[in-house]
Amino acid sequence: DALTSDAQRKLLRERLGAALDGLDVVSATAYLGAAEIAQALTAGAQVVVAGRVSDPSLTLGPALAHFGWGLDDWPRLGRATMAGHMLECGLQVTGGYFCVPGLKDVPDVHSAGFPIAEIQADGEFVIGKADGTGGMVDARTVKEQLLYEVHDPSRYLTPDVVADLSRATVAELGGNRVAVRGITGHSRPDELKVNVCYRGGWLAEAEISYAGVQAEARARLAADIVRKRVDPALRLRADLIGAVSILGDDAGELLSGLPDGHARDVRLRIATEHLDRKLADSLLREVTALYTCGPAGGGGVRTALRPRLNMMSCTLPRDAVPSGWTFLEETAQ
Known about the structure:
four-stranded antiparallel sheet; globular
């Protein structure tokens, strides 16, 4: 739910300090849990439309409604929460994101099926996938997803429960079915995580390609030309896609310290961000000008300018976050 009142903004200020001052806040949303989802389903809802909720809560909510567990049945809530964690990334547990050709091959990954969780009354669960689909579910895919984005296996914090998978076991049952056991849970956190989004100015990105003899040298020169032509107030990032990009850094230290590798197929990407739209847009014009006002043979310029949202996070007491559910009135067609 949106946190918009003056009292809530004051509370955010207490948690975030001076970092919040002067920001054009667009939204402040807290991660809610499964309770309201379960209540709506129990009341007869066939579809529940939620705002920001924790990913595992989308699975825990239906489990709560189906089994009638108490909201303080921590072991069962912990297990069903981790069942939701197994489902939340889609094909990841059925081979997508897991696969590495030659190292971790996955059959027919192009047609991998979404995972299915069979949750039992005690919260223990089995992960599988639909018959006739590609991909696979085995101990390796399950273990990778089980530990995905987990900082402390004994304290996986969610709005509903602190799940504990430190003693989890994984057993292959055959036929792309894997049982996960040994998970438990502890009392839920006292506070909810809140994301505060605020306007972050403009992101400008532009790309141009160089190929053939001394392509990398031409791309490096093009980046240097743009850097010298734009306003010094712009902080630029230059990536040589095909030579130095993913492993690069905003300051360009890796790029400047890495010798020309004589790549023959390079796409130069230059990006900047600034609160002044006109200043950010000037980068795009300079990269476009490289067609004939830069090194030889550049082509395929693409530019993009779009507003940017930045974010900071904190936690707030539960009673400061209004939550609930309601049936939407049917409207005449």
